[in-house]
Amino acid sequence: MSEIHINPMSLFPYDVNRREGTYFDRNGKRVKDECLDYHYAVAYEGTDIRLATWACKQRKELTNLATYFEGATVEEKRQIIWHKIETQRVNRHFLRFCERHRNEPLFLWYVSSYDLPTAQFIKRFLEWYWSQYPIINH
Q: Residue 45: how many CB atoms within 10 A of its CB?
């Protein structure tokens, strides 16, 4: 099972040129896209447009994993995903994401302290999923 690291976005080691979609290290050298595999943001997306806009700018163009889990609060996200698993209506793209990251380290970068509980929930969910649905070797 892979390791999941949760860190604040302020420690993210790369900066992004938003217009070009390219990343640079602290020395200004371009970073290959492969270095960014397994890096995801956990950022607010909700009804407060000012907070959502700020979070979008802060997440450094990384995919926002919070959008993979429906619901506004951690409790809602937990209830919705649990219901989908029980009724076997989980999105196949979501399952592919879970399987893709089973054996590689995963980095969750939370944008604000508000997003930390969501990052922790995602980590616990993935660890639970990997333990409940192990890979079966034929």
A: 14
Question: What's the rounded Cα separation, in Å, for the pair 48 and 126?
Answer: 28
- 69/62 Cα distance (integer angstroms): 16
Q: What is the pLDDT of residues 90-127, one digit of tens each?
A: 888 888 888 888 888 999 999 999 899 999 999 999 99
User: What share of residues in the chain are helix, strand, coil (percent, to 5)?
Assistant: 45, 15, 40
User: pTM (2 decimals)?
Assistant: 0.86
Residue 102, both tokens: 């089973």
CA 58 – CA 106 distance, rounded (Å): 19
Q: Is the backbone of residue 64 left (phi > 0), alpha (psi -120 to 50) or beta? A: beta
Within 10 A of 73 (CB to CB), how many other CB atoms are there?
12
The three-state DSSP-derived secondary structure of 47-106 is CCHHHHHHHHHHCCCCCEHHHHCCCCCHHHHHHHHHHHHHCCCCCHHHHHHHHHCCCCCE
Judge whether 63 and 43 are in contact, CB under 8 Å: no
